[in-house]
Amino acid sequence: MPQSLPDPVLILDFGSQLTQNIARRIREMEIYSEILPHTVSAGELRERKPRALILSGGPSSVFEDGAPSIDPGIFGLGVPVLGICYGMQLMAQILGGTVVSAEIREYGVTPLLLEPDPSSPWTAFSPSSPVLMSHGDTILKLPPGFRKTGHTRSTPIAAMEDRKNQFYGVQFHPEVTQTLQGVPFLKAFLVEIAKISRNWTLSGYIDRQIAEISATVGNDHLICALSGGIDSTVTALLCHLALGDRFQAVFVDNGLMRAGEAQQIVHDLTHLNLPLIHVNAEKTFLDRLKGIRDPERKRKVIGKTFIDVFWEEALHLPVRPRYLAQGTLYPDVIESISHKGPSSVIKSHHNVGGLPRKNPFLLVEPLKELFKDEVRRLGKELGLPETFIRKQPFPGPGLAIRIIGAVTPERLRIVQEADRIVREELDHSPHAAFLWQYFAVLLPVQSVGVMGDQRTYENVIAIRTVSSQDGMTADVGEIPYSALKHLSHRIIAEVRGVNRVVYDISAKPPSTIEWE
Questions:
Q1: Per-residue pLDDT tens for 96-108?
Q2: Catalytic residue among 106, 161, 175, 516
Q3: Residue 226's Cα: distance from chain center in Å?
């Protein structure tokens, strides 16, 4: 994003997996925000003329060796500062408070109990409002000039403020959906205290990205890694609008997609008038995956194979493209590398972790600062039909990471047939509107069963349903027992090789949405 927009909210990243959620919440208010590394100096920040600063959470402890810190001069810039979780603890330590290891670590949702005479922005919270806690340290002593504004049953200082200097700190995470009144709190901080007006829209984002793609590619050509999902489709539309006939989309059919999906993708994308090359590379992918059971190796093999196929296709184009466009989103980036802070690596994604150091393409990733729901809104702005906009997220490695263990043609058939039944039953059910994803997973175990009066020893399918807004956190999707029972009956009856179905009731965190 450009650095010339007025009244920026600058977020200093200390490595929380939720840092980008802060920026996302702020952009939903149509206020421009940008994430910067925590190492940025006070002088550099002064040049940006921010209207507010936010210090993110992070996985570190403020008193451990090598803990990330900030330039103390940041607190002399004369702008409102909000510290969240680690950011609050760091603020307290730098400004003269005391941080210690908590006797009782606090993880999960708990009521926030406000102190007497709470005032803005605390009025956003009702008494005993639920907030998400995730910390092992706590503030023992407030810095000079601060007062306590909230606590929980386990944390004596869960919120603090220095109203004179406009410094605020919260031990909880207002940026997540589990903190029910977190967004009104952030809005009160930005609008009532920092006095920031709306200055950011998705329509403006489209214009800036088209201009940026055009300026980046210049007179060269660009090839797009098109999967048929909302992310790569919006990426392709932006690139096509920017480049015209210097753009080429390539759809690689890796054979790891859901039943009938490859054919539907070709049909849909052709009707969007995108220049499309369809490559059937199923045999190549399955051959390279033979015998591989480790999920990280699967992802890396699939990522490298994607790139190899693109290289081969690029060699046969009339003009070799210099640029490769990918539909990378921020959840992909932040779960793969320490993007703008010391965030913990969770897993590799093929579109950010599989590129070799020596490759013939320069990357164009116009969506890498956006979350899924923002991309859907962007697609709507670009005129995509509702069927595209409401497509469920589907992992780049496809069903390979929904087959736990080795990928074989037979195991692929089983998970495709089971997944087809899950989608048939839930796509048109009243539950679908409340679900982010629903799918089947083939487990690496077999179980004893009885079918037709005979003993069987066959595969187990897990059903996964989740509700979410952005994929960074997710709750278990609530499906009636009767619907689950019907799903189990159909899968066992119709999918040869399955004799047991289980239901995954894990939230993210601590689990991930995908099993691998």
A1: 999 998 887 888 8
A2: 175
A3: 19
CATH number of 202-389: 3.40.50.620
Q: Is 173 a residue of the active site?
A: yes
pLDDT at 345: 47
Catalytic residue status for 313: no
Contact 354, 303 (CB under 8 A): yes
* Catalytic annotation, pick one of 85, 106, 135, 339: 85
In angstroms and rounded to an integer, the radius of gyration of the C-alpha atoms of the chain is: 25
The tokens describing 362, both together, are 């320069």
Cα–Cα distance measured from residue 418 to residue 391, given in angstroms and rounded to the nearest whole number: 19
Question: Are the beta carbons of 223 and 250 closer than 8 angstroms?
Answer: yes
Domain with CATH 3.40.50.880 in the chain: 9-193
CB 169 within 8 A of CB 161: yes
Strands (E), 40-197: 52-55, 81-84, 98-114, 129-141, 147-151, 159-162, 167-170
Q: Is 240 designated active site?
A: no
Q: For the structural domain made of 9-193, what CATH number should be given? A: 3.40.50.880
Catalytic residue among 38, 135, 173, 221: 173
Q: 408-504 belongs to which CATH class?
A: alpha beta
State the CB neighbour count (10 A cutoff) for residue 474. Answer: 23
pLDDT under 70: residue ranges of the chain = 1-6, 330-331, 333-359
CATH 3.40.50.620 domain locations along the chain: 202-389
CA distances from 169 to 78, 85, 225, 241 (A): 16, 8, 43, 44
Instruction: Give tens-digit pLDDT for 189-223.
Output: 999 999 999 888 888 889 989 999 999 999 999 99
* Residue 356: per-residue pLDDT: 58
